[in-house]
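Re: beginner question about structure tokens

> Can someone show what the tokenized structure looks like for a real chain? I only ever see the sequence side.

Sure, here's an example I had lying around. Input first:
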Amino acid sequence: MIFKYALPIQDEVDLSLPKGSKILRIECQGNEPKVWAMVPRPPEYVPNEIRKIKIFGTGPQFSIPEHLDYLATFQHQNFVWHVFEDLNGAKR
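And the corresponding structure tokens:
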């Protein structure tokens, strides 16, 4: 099953997903960033886990630590955002 979740544009986001979910896509629907994830079936019988998401804007110089896994790039209004999952911060 594939479900959609809201993704606020913040430096760090705690995203609650059913354990074992796979993030498939991140983009704006209308004017709101969304995450599409394939979730275990049936999800109501699977406990949730917190996935630590980090979002960076285009332009500022920063280094990407090895524990950040690239997920997607999306546009929102006049900005371009780059989304990573913090593999050290996951509560699974």
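Each token stands for a local structural state, so reading them left to right follows the chain. The mean pLDDT is 91.
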